[in-house]
């Protein structure tokens, strides 16, 4: 058995730290709007994930939208922190250039964190499958 705590930020066996780099955060309002209006959707039990291929750049950029209807600031920040940690743990090593917006549902607050992790992982897999087939140089 490993002495590493359960919430470890390292990938087992690699010695490398899992990161969700600041450069991979989606921040601009215009980018969020573009993803909502032009992108695809993936529905899960605790969240809806919007995604849109970018013309240039590398890898995913991820943003979070937590509506005021879901609760007060403390509740919304807790949701954001849980989602950010799930994204960090399942950050893909190589991915299609895309913008992703994760929009949680109220059920996320009561969900087991393992369920949230599974849904984020599944969403990234679906996005890779749908956008990966259209990567330049592959047909």
Structure description:
This protein has 139 residues and is α+β, with helices and mostly antiparallel strands. It has one domain (22-128): Ribosomal Protein S5, domain 2. 34% of the residues lie in helices and 17% in strands. It has 3 helices and 4 strands, in the order H-E-E-E-H-E-H. A 4-stranded mixed β-sheet has the order 1-2-4-3, with helices on both faces. Helix 2 (73-89) crosses helix 3. The longest helix has 20 residues, at 113-132. The N and C termini lie far apart (45 Å). Mean pLDDT is 83; it is low at 1-8 and 135-139.
SSE inventory with pairings:
Blueprint: H1 29-38, E1 40-43, E2 47-53, E3 60-64, H2 73-89, E4 98-104, H3 113-132
Parallel strand pairs: 3-4
Antiparallel strand pairs: 1-2, 2-4
Write out key terms for the chains shown.
alpha+beta; Ribosomal Protein S5, domain 2; disordered C terminus
In summary, what is this structure?
Helix content is 34%, strand content 17%. The chain has helices at residues 29-38, 73-89, 113-132; strands at residues 40-43, 47-53, 60-64, 98-104. It has a 4-stranded mixed beta sheet with strand order 1-2-4-3, with helices on both faces.
